[in-house]
Specification:
The protein is an alpha+beta fold and 305 residues long. Helix content is 51%, strand content 16%. It has a 6-stranded antiparallel β-sheet, sandwiched between helices. A hairpin with a 6-residue loop joins β2 and β3. The chain is elongated, with a radius of gyration of 35 Å. The chain starts with a helix and ends with a helix.
Amino acid sequence: MFAHRLCAFENISKQCAPALRYSQRRWAQVHDVRFLVTHQRADNITERYREKLKQKAAQEGLQSVDELKAVYKNRNKEERNKATTNAAFPQPPPPPSPTSIDLSSKSPSSPHKASAPPGLKTLSSYLDLPKTLALPPKEIEYIWRLRHANSSTSLCAIIPSQTYLRIQQTARKYPHFILPLPREGSPGAEIHFLQWSFPASDTATVMFTHLAEYKLRGEFSQPHTTITMHLELMEEKGLVLMQGQVVEGRGVNVEEARWLVLCLQKFYGGTEGDHVSRRRLLEKFSQGDETFRVEDLVDEAEKIV
C-alpha cells in the first residue's frame, strides 16, 4: 500500500513540475550588471564634465573631447611603461664559486680599511685592534673569553686559522645544512636549520633557526642563535675570534647552542676518519638527494660526543 502511494506522489510531482518551472521563468529578467555599473557610469561622468573637457581640449589645441582622451591615454601608457622600466628588480648576484675562494685574508691591516656593511659589527667594535695586535696569542684568547664571561646568553671561541680555512672552504660550497639537537627525555632529536653568509671580507656569520619555523616562514623566520667569526687577526696571529648571541625565549639555551656550534665545526671542518661520511651528508642535502636520511645525520652527530 505504501509503495502505491509513493508512486502516486511521484506522478503528481512530475505533472506539476512543468507548471512550476513555467511560473518561475515567466517573470525572470537578466541584467548585465557589469555594463550597468561601469559603462553607463563612465558615460554619465563624461556627460557631466563635458564642458570642462571641451575647455581643456581647447587649451591643448585639440578639436574634440575624443582627441583629448586619446592624447591622455597615450601619455598614461608611456608613464606606466617608464615606471615599470625604472622599478625593475635588479638581478641577484651569482653565488660564490668554490674555485674563486680567497683563503688568504690578505694583510691584517686591510680589514680596518675595508668598509663594512651598515649594522655589521667588526672586531674593532669589541677590541682595540692596534693594541691587540701587539699581544701574544695566549693573552688575546684570555682577553676575548674574559670579555664575554659576564653575559649569560653569549658564546665565544678561539679558532685556529687552519681549522677555520677548512670550515670556510666547505661553507662556501655548502652554505645550508641541518643539524640535530638531542633533547633529554626525548627519544628523537630536534632539527635545526643553519645558513652561512659572508657579509664582508673579514667576517663570516651563521644563523641557526628551528627547521619547523624556517619551513613555515622561510626567509622571514627568526634565528634563535647567530654567531660571527672575525678574521682580522688570522694572518698575523693565526687566530679567528668567534662570538655569538642566543636569543632568549626562542626555545634554545646557551648549552644547546654550544652543541650546535660543535656539530657545525665537526661537519664543516673535521679531519678525523669519519669526516668522509659527514661530507657525503652535506653533499646529499645540498643536492636534494632523495637518499639523504635524518637518521644517518643523527647517527653521525652522536659520534661527536
